[in-house]
Write a structure and sequence with these properties.
Helix content: under 10%
Structural class: mainly beta
Number of helices: 7
Largest sheet: 22 strands, antiparallel, barrel
Shape: globular
Oligomer: single chain
Number of strands: 42
Mean pLDDT: 90
Length: 724
Amino acid sequence: MKTIIISVMALFAIQQASAQNSFSVYIKDGKTKESVPGATANIQGTTNGNSTDVEGLVTLQGIANGKQIIIYKAIGYKAKFDTLIFPLATTDTNTIFMDGTEAELDEVTVSTTRSTRTIQDIPTRVEVIGGEELDEKGNMKPGDIRMMLSESTGIQTLQTSATSGNSSIRIEGLDGRYTQILKDGFPLYAGFSGGLGLLQTPPLDLKQVEIIKGSSSTLYGGGAIAGLINLISKTPKEERELRFLVNGTSALGLDINGYYGQRFGKIGFTIFAAYNSNAPYDPAGIGLTAIPKFERYTFNPKLFFYLDKKTDLIFGLNTTVEKRLGGDIQYIKGTGDNIHSYYEDNNTQRYSSQLEVKHRFSDQVSLSIKNSIDLFDRVINTPGYKFDGSQTSSFTEASYSRHEDKTEWVGGANVFTDGFSEQKLTNIPLRNYTQTTIGGFIQNTWDISHKIILESGLRSDYIENYGWALLPRVSLLYKINNQLTSRLGGGLGYKTPTIFTEESERIQYRNVLPISADSNKLEKSYGANWDVNYRTSFADGAISFSVNQLFFYTRLNDPLLLTPIGTDLYQFKNVAAHIDAQGAETNIKLGYKNFKLYLGYTYTYSYIHDGSNVNETPLTPRHHTNSVLTYEIENKLKLGLEAYYYSPQKLSDGSTGRDYWLCGFMAERAWKKFSLFINFENFLDTRQTRFGTIYTGTITNPTFKDIYAPLDGFVANGGIKINL
């Protein structure tokens, strides 16, 4: 009997052991056929799961007999299901190919590099602010794009006027004139027209914003020493897009924006119109405007002609008219007197056209011809002084591209003209000029292997009165594996001398002598950056994690600085010195279910080296952090909490401004056709006027200090978005 019992137990144990199966599988990318480390495989309805190793191999043990469903997951890929019946007929190791998800940012195609590739295959480091993020930032500042840009790591918007709010943008610690701002590849915001460009660009008609940091002059010509920003407009689709946004603020502001786009067969069009205004606002009670009184009208129609399957023609117009009055509150309200008489009045008109023709000879070969003409008029009035000038510029480019399986070629030529004229209103010599730049460029992108992609480019520009500039650049992308990539790039840049800088804008160009090709020369630079990007997941894919670490360096030779000469006169001089801007950016993203956490840190070390003298670049915080926590139920609810820290900054008078925090909270509730939003910006009410006075002298004739922190303080806004 004992023998029988032992035999039955042994037989039962053997049967149970045979019911426990093992299964091994390689998980690979469906496009590149490369391994996907960190992917997970789980038996549905159980806790039995495991992750792939560096070779993409995963093994599951203890699988019961019968039908089992295995779920494969990985960041950036669509989940995949496989139904198997155990025991399997064969013990061979299988291979599963996973497809990328369209929702990932890596699937976004960028156009700034003139390539048709997605971000994951472009060696040049490009940051993209997509439509969803633009929509969220539009809740906070529907009237312009300053906030959207300033909340990115490595980017700083700098207010150049205490009372009228004029601003410029800095990338990686360099002056705003070294950043090139484009719209759909057209340089519309250069020179005189750049001072108010950020304030006069609402985001509602933008599809995405593409940012390249570091030397980028090879792409579109001089001016992109610190980097470039390309504002990409929406294009019409067959499905109608009709959107309206109405926003009001506690600072007495009003924004009414509307956008309509649709395609009808061979014709499409988009129309963007906006009205933005603000009453004079003085939260500090010092009698001066933190936000000026202004009214702005914007109208941007664009037509798309799809002439045939191979040829498209696009024609657009941009129109902006604005009146902006800052200064003494009593004067602006009409109750001024001999004491309350200070004002800064800006009247601007901007008209520009964009024409582009695209012809595809085949799927691989295409030709693009584009032209823009930009007219910008601005009148600045302050007590006892008036500056009245007009800028006319044009940009014409022809480019030819050829795309093959492993290589792309883009070549072309462009002509940029820039002219400025002013009314003779003072004893200062006229600052009139005409400038023509002719350039040619060639660019190649080469897939050396699945892991290594090389992009190289060369531009040669002839700048009237200043001669030739040769601009090579190179970028390398190394795909170590599906989780880890690295980019290394660098190039040369230059900037043509101009009186239109942050320094001269602060003094409204008063007593600034003209630029002369006999005494001034090109500012030239070289720079490089290197980044490492890593992404993975934890807890069986429930938690996503990514980190990007960037290191950058730029050297600017013969910088053009505004130098006092004589009594109350200023002249731009190329000093025998150089500027070093170097540092690092860290970006971390964490995701769990409906929560996302974004953490950023920027370290900027920017100095002017003049012989043995080394001076810190003014208005450049050494440390800057940004933290954003969001909660989103798709198409229903959005909540966002953000905090930004700025370390003490050296000011132009030699003093040091204090550090400060900015915090905000945003909420949006969405229904099918509309949504309601509310935003509490800077709810800690951080203001520079809390740190001390912002001017010296009297309120009748104030001399303003550097503006390094907000002046408007806590501002609440809310409104409605309608999508029909």
